[in-house]
Design brief:
Layout (H helix, E strand, L loop, with lengths): L1 E2 L5 H17 L4 E4 L6 E6 L1 H7 L1 H17 L5 E2 L3 H4 E6 L5 E4 L5 E6 L4 E2 L2 E4 L13 H11 L1 H7 L3 E3 L6 E4 L5 E4 L2 E2 L4 E9 L8 H9 L14
Antiparallel strand pairs: 1-11, 2-3, 3-5, 4-14, 5-14, 6-12, 7-11, 7-14, 8-13, 9-10, 9-12
The protein binds 2-oxoglutaric acid and fe (ii) ion.
């Protein structure tokens, strides 16, 4: 689902300036992970840093939460892991985000600025879920086959969401395959990524996946989205 003008241009401009100030005052690690045709290359402000220093981002998250709860009454809550629940992604020119599924059921993305490239490429309801847990080796193999460029182009219904000021994308993050195309031009792509799931949902992949997404430390060669 794509909603226009979820945040006003003035709100977005204020958020961009607060995030840019934060980025100047703190050295944000750039996270780079090679992965098939498209790497993960971005900088991120995690939810703990946001709670401490970016109250306006917290406000937007609360507003989004009210909307998401209206869409799925009684069934969704912000993730308990505050670090993961709300993030600011900063993707500089040349950066991108690999094809993946999120660990959580519902993801909302608010775009704060207009840039060249950097479209979110979505394949709604694309995954073939095998079992109750989505982390098995077999699921990984199946996901990998469906992620292949040729398979995507043959069977998938592709939706491209361009970053526009105040635009909100809401998706079933663990069912909708998605990626971010390379950012072009001179301006960094800024957005707020907000995550929801059933009340008290736990994620078995959390520790390795958090190290992979939020630190520039080396991680194991296997994909931390799966248990192997
Ligand atoms: O920035 C985007 O458009 C997508 C980011 C994303 O998929 C994620 O942070 O999990
Ligand atoms: Fe994602």
């Amino acid at each position: 689902m794509v909603l226009e003008n979820f945040a006003t241009p003035e709100e977005c401009a204020a958020l961009v300036s607060q995030i840019s100030d934060y980025g100047r005052e703190h050295e944000l690690p750039v996270i780079e992970r090679a992965s098939g045709e498209l790497p993960l290359r971005y900088a991120v402000i995690d939810g703990e840093q946001i709670a401490e220093s970016l109250p306006e981002v917290v406000h937007v998250y609360e507003r989004t939460t009210r909307l998401v709860k209206k869409l799925w009454p009684g069934r969704v809550e912000p993730l308990v892991d505050r670090k993961v629940a709300c993030n600011v992604n900063i993707t500089r020119p040349g950066g991108s985000y690999r094809y993946h599924y999120d660990r959580n059921a519902v993801t909302a993305i608010l775009y704060l600025n207009e840039i060249e490239g950097g479209e979110t490429e979505c394949y709604p309801d694309y995954r073939l879920p095998l079992a109750r847990t989505s982390y098995s080796t077999l699921q990984q193999k199946l996901d990998r086959v469906l992620q292949h460029r040729v398979v995507r182009s043959l069977v998938a219904n592709q939706l491209l969401v361009r970053p526009r000021v105040g635009r909100l994308l809401i998706m079933q993050g663990n069912r909708c395959l998605h990626s971010v195309r390379p950012v072009r031009g001179q301006t960094a792509r800024l957005n707020i990524v907000m995550s929801y799931d059933r009340p008290n949902a736990q994620f078995d992949v959390a520790d390795d996946l958090n190290a992979y997404l939020y630190s520039s430390a080396a991680t194991s060669a296997t994909d931390p989205n799966y248990l192997t």
